[in-house]
Structures are given as structure tokens and as C-alpha cells.
Amino acid sequence: MKTVFTLCDEDASVAVAAVRAELIKRGKLGTIAVTDAHGELIALLRMSGTALNSMTVATNKAFTAARLKRASADLGRAVRHTENGYDVAYFGDPRYVGFAGGQPVIKDGQVVGAVGVSGLTQAEDDDLAHLGVTAILAR
User: Confidence class of residue 80 from pLDDT cuts 50, 70 and 90?
Assistant: First the structure.
């Protein structure tokens, strides 16, 4: 048997609080999603005034990062730079996305969950997702 470590609701709360505080500091709005090791949602916060579609996008970014064990942007780069190319749907689940802003949480070489952020530029989303991961790992 294999033991699978995964994030818990307390980890998710730490990430959400850290990212939310940074968004407030920057005077911006966004949505923060945290998933477990399987990419399933633990926590979701859409700040008031953030676009509704950002909930699905943030959740899918975190899902992608957890399931593929790499940043969600890596999938986008792979799809765009493959010689023959293929659709993201090739991965078999419509929740996979190739946008920046989904980062896996890696503890002792194992993906234990992921943080996804949506609502800003891809660079800002990615920076904030990193912040959420760092907050979890510092816990």
C-alpha cells in the first residue's frame, strides 16, 4: 500500500488568508482555490466584485497543477509548442487548463495539493499562487 499525504482545510485556510491579504494590499480582487493531492477542491474564495468565471478558472488551475504535478502554465506551453500540437482535451478531462496561476504544493518530493488564483493577469495569478504555496509550506 501507498500512503498519500494531502493538504487539509487548515492548510487551505492559511493559503487563502495569505493570498487574500496580498490582494488587499495591492488593491486588487481575485479568486483563490486550494485543492487536495487529487486536485479536488478544499477551499474557494471569490472576493466580492471578482468576475464569476474566475471561480471555475481558479479551481481548474489548481486541479491541473495537482493532477499533472506541475504548474498549470506548463501544460499551456506544452500544447502550444508541440510540433503536431494537440488540444488540452487530449488529457481526458475538461478541467485541465494551460493558463498560469496554478501551482502544486510539493512536500518531501510529493505533490500534496495545489493553489490556483484567477482574476488578474496570468503573471500576477502565478505570483499569488506561489505566495499561497509558500504560506502552506511555512506552516
Answer: low
Kindly give the interhelix angle for 53-68 and 72-81, rounded to the nearest 10 degrees: 80
CA-to-CA separations, 114 to 49, 77, 93, 98, in angstroms, rounded: 24, 19, 17, 15
Per-position DSSP letters for 34-63, written without gaps between them: EEETTS-EEEEEE-TTS-THHHHHHHHHHH
Name the fold adopted by 9-138.
Answer: Beta-Lactamase (3.30.450)
Residues 10-30 pLDDT 10s:
999 999 999 999 999 999 999
Burial class, 79, CB count within 10 angstroms (exposed 0-12 / middle 13-18 / buried 19+): middle
Which helix or strand (DSSP H or E) is residue 123 part of? helix 122-138
CA distance 117 to 31: 6
List CB contacts of 53: < 8 A, sequence separation 6 or more. none
Find cell 479568486 and name the residue.
Answer: 31
Beta bridge partners of 107: 110
Question: What does pTM read for this prediction?
Answer: 0.92
Q: What is the pLDDT of residue 46?
A: 98
